[in-house]
Specification:
This protein is of the alpha+beta class and about 400 residues long. It has helices at about 5-25, 30-35, 40-45, 65-80, 85-100, 105-115, 230-265, 280-310, 315-340, 350-360, 370-385; strands at about 120-125, 140-145, 145-160, 165-170, 180-185, 195-200, 210-220, 225, 270, 275. It has three domains: about 5-120, Orthogonal Bundle (Butyryl-Coa Dehydrogenase, subunit A, domain 1), CATH 1.10.540; about 120-230, Butyryl-CoA Dehydrogenase, subunit A, domain 2 (Beta Barrel), CATH 2.40.110; about 230-385, Butyryl-CoA Dehydrogenase, subunit A, domain 3 (Up-down Bundle), CATH 1.20.140.10. About 50% of the residues lie in helices and about 15% in strands. It has a four-stranded mixed beta sheet with strand order 1-4-5-8. A four-stranded antiparallel beta sheet has the order 2-3-7-6, with helices on one face. α4 packs antiparallel against α8 (about 280-310) and α7 (about 230-265) runs parallel beside α9.
Length: about 400
Amino acid sequence: MDYFLTEEQQFMKDVAKDLAEKKIRPVSAEFDETGEFPWEIVKAIAEADLFRVFIPDEYGGMAGDSAIMNMCVVTEELSKVDGGISLAFAATGLGTFPILVSASDEQKAKWLPRIADGTVAAFALTEANAGSNAAGLATTAVEDGDSYIINGTKQWITNGGEADIYTVFAVTDPARGPRGLSCFVVEKGTPGFTFGKKENKLGIRASATRELIFTDCRVPKENMIGRRGTGFITAMKTFDRSRPGVAAQAVGIAAGALELAIKYSTERKQFDQPINNFQGLRFMLADMAMKVESARALVYSTARWIDTNPSEKFTAYSAMAKCYASDMAMSVTTDAVQVFGGYGYMKEYPVEKMMRDAKITQIYEGTNQIQRDEIGRGIVAEVARKAK
């Protein structure tokens, strides 16, 4: 289908597709097996200028007025081949959004050009006892002269240990609840900032996931993003913009699995004919294709709406895109394994990896149960607003 991509977006898509096929596909299984972070591919993504697609033009980027849509287009293409390796790009976008939505011009000028050039970033909100409940953070930041001293840990941080720039959320005013959170940029190498072990995961294994440890970590006051106490708002605004990126990752994983299933169904023969001659299997492929296309339509529509209406309240629709696309990805990749039959269960074929990779899209950046709650609250509030 024609999703009316601009000439620039079509170029981004083509560049990402070419990179994924030539650089990622040949090594995807190897990185999944070893869990190694794909630095050579990150370098290739940077050299292709793809980190620039969500960065404003004035800071060395090429986002124009389509940062979210650009990010979704590139994320989908990379994820069609490897949903884990694509996270080096996509999670850098997540780590960048707090700077984009809340930083001063001076702060943007300090960090955004580096990210545009390929510096990897990470977003650090989740803790052991504060996952879906983002307001329940225990990490603290205590004011001390011209600095803040951060103590605490963050858990399951994508790009953790590999990124150089981290947007970190900590409690500055414990008595104020959600209004007591603030956001800071902490750079790798800052004294008192270390990393825990690299997690051994079910899927997205080429993506680094680590604990972040802050022990009397002194951060300059000028590294606070936004005003003191506005960290929760920054985090929620970030999720509103980043969740379509997770959705695009899910669409990409599912679309890649569908492409492989169709190809396999043409090549695999049973009873002296290709298995896609059997109506039961064609029905499966048809359902898979409908799910992918409908999810992509929702994701792209949501991304465009956010780009063109940045002051609107789009939380519910961002949640819809993430929730629907990730549920779809789990369904389609599971069906892809079924199309491959016994071969699909074997690691020498990529669809079992796609099924493993798809699962996390239902969990991170807010579980799909949280997404449904956000959607429900949003649509009820919209009806109430219109009734006034």
